[in-house]
Design goal:
two-stranded antiparallel ribbon; 498 residues; 7-stranded antiparallel beta sheet; DNA-binding; single chain
DNA sequence: TATCAGCGCGCC
DNA sequence: AAAGGGCGCGCTGATA
């Protein structure tokens, strides 16, 4: 892989970035080692209980009969044989290589106590081995974790993290997120502060493709791309799009389409989401499936993607056919400038054999279409965060502040802040992102915004709460607060939710 | 015993 | 014509 910066801008960014990230590594993040050890002990006990149940089940008897001495509850290939050959479950998903998949999704909707217990055990093992045990092993004698941040490993010129990977700590599953993130705590008299770029990759993509519709979605706060797509996909008026409906449109259509997916993959996910998300027509008690039936749509339709037969042609009147039409409108009409950019960008890459990013990097090699159009966006997005991190460290040092940047996750930055520096630090980061960054990089043609999440005093990384910050003032639920009052309020919020 | 591909799963 | 981008890490099972 060629990871040489294309010009002095890239070289300079990574030079200063390496310095800054090594400072972050050396700083480290404080760990509640007492909690960590208790949690590990409890988790081990729970796994032991899981084992007891699983090993006394009739399915395990089958398993032993089939594999004898080699029987291994951790073996996915063996699980495949048991689930599909012995128990006769239907194969709903296959792996890349064509094997019957045994991932969680493959067993979705199957009401089998053995499989459910097995999945629960796998989650606990994951939490223990990948997270708690690794954190415990890497934590220094004085109670700090020092994850490594690399700038030399990723094809897009993003960063990676290891020992342990700080960039994949659980959060989406609240139970698992709590279990792991409770171990991350602030230094004495400090709070953890997380600053995330708002819609970073969408913003950067707009800078590359210059699509006027996408730009206006970003700039105009009254517009909402995901709500609009939710409306179109599920045949709803704006007001009828619920939060969950919007979520489905965003994560099962808009982002996948931006990354290069297409209707035959999106439609089944959107269709399943109706039931999984228990979607309703907002403001009514009408289930979305009923609403769609009123519009003549009662089934998903054919979405098969077959090596021999190619892509299905779903019948008019099916959901898949509808999603196909929405996709056509999405790329041929709504975001046609974005579509044209993708086409031209890839064609130019094919002519030259490489492409250059706005941030001073050349990517040279054999890339598929989706790779060639996604890499510059992913890389340049991260470079906005890296620039911010470098300058945050520089500015706080100059101001002789004690605040410390302790970690970074692609589009976000985690800091450990003395409570009396919260205002100054927030002002600094906001100014860097919204004013200085677009000044330094004139390719940034949309506003850049940073969002703020605070873990109140005496609380952990799990307890982070989103707050609003503008013009030097924090606000929560539309009401403004001085930072000291805000912290107290957030602290109460955490306590009452426990 | 070491290494690798494949799979699964956590994150952006 | 192609058809979801990028990581790190644990584990199995095959192979050297």
């Amino acid at each position: 892989m060629n990871i040489t910066p294309q010009d002095i801008r890239g070289l300079d960014l990574f030079h200063r970035g390496t310095e800054a990230l090594s400072e972050v590594e050396a700083t480290g993040i404080r760990i509640d080692v007492g909690y960590l050890d208790t949690a590990r002990k409890e988790l081990k006990a729970q796994i032991k209980e899981d084992d007891k149940e699983l090993y006394s089940s009739k399915e395990w008897l089958l398993w032993r009969r089939r594999f004898g001495q080699n029987a291994n509850i951790d073996s996915n290939p063996q699980l495949g044989v048991i689930a599909y050959n012995e128990l006769g479950l239907e194969v709903k998903k296959r792996t890349e290589k064509g094997a019957a998949s045994t991932d969680e999704e493959a067993f979705e909707g199957i009401d089998n106590p053995f499989i459910s217990k097995l999945i629960r055990r796998k989650k606990r093992i994951k939490a223990l081995t990948t997270y708690l045990d690794n954190i415990r092993r890497e934590v220094s004698p004085d109670g700090f974790l020092h994850p490594v941040f690399n700038l030399n490993t990723v094809i897009t010129y993003r960063s990676s993290s290891e020992k342990p990977n700080f960039q994949n700590m659980p959060i989406r599953d609240p139970e698992m997120g709590k279990l792991i993130r409770r171990a991350f705590i602030p230094r004495p008299n400090c709070v953890l502060l997380e600053n995330d770029f708002k819609g970073l990759e969408v913003c950067v993509s707009a800078c590359y493709n210059k699509d006027p519709v996408l730009i206006s979605y970003i700039k105009d706060p009254t517009k909402d791309m995901h709500r609009d797509m939710g409306g179109q996909l599920y045949m709803l008026k704006k007001k009828e799009v619920s939060k969950k409906t919007r979520y489905g449109a965003k994560n099962k259509f808009v982002f996948p389409e931006f990354y290069g997916s297409f209707w035959a993959q999106c439609a089944p996910a959107l269709w399943e989401w109706i039931d999984l998300g228990k979607l309703m027509v907002e403001g009514t008690d009408i289930p979305l499936k009923v609403h769609l039936a009123n519009h003549g749509i009662t089934e998903l339709g054919d979405c098969s993607i077959d090596d021999e037969n190619g892509i299905a042609s779903p019948q008019p009147g099916t959901f898949a056919h509808h999603v196909m039409q929405v996709e056509k409108d999405f790329w041929n009409n709504r975001f046609r400038v974005y579509a044209r950019w993708k086409k031209e960008w890839f064609a130019e890459y094919l002519r030259k054999g490489y492409f250059d990013t706005y941030t001073g990097f050349r990517l040279e090699g054999v890339f598929a279409r989706n790779e060639a159009v996604n890499y510059p966006i992913q890389g340049s997005g991260f470079h906005c965060l890296l620039w911010t991190l470098i300058h945050t460290i520089r500015a706080k040092r100059k101001a002789k502040m004690s605040s410390l940047v302790v970690g970074q996750i692609h589009d976000s930055m985690l800091s450990d802040i003395p409570v009396d520096e919260l205002d100054d630090f927030s002002a600094m980061v906001n100014e860097l992102v919204s004013i200085e960054l677009p000044k330094v990089w004139d390719w940034i043609i949309v506003p850049m915004q940073i969002e703020t999440e605070i873990c109140p005093p005496e609380c952990t990384w799990y307890d982070k709460k989103e707050v609003h910050y503008a013009d030097g003032v924090f606000s929560l639920d539309g009401k403004q607060f001085p930072s000291s009052a805000l912290l107290k309020l957030l602290q109460q919020k955490v306590k009452s939710s426990e």
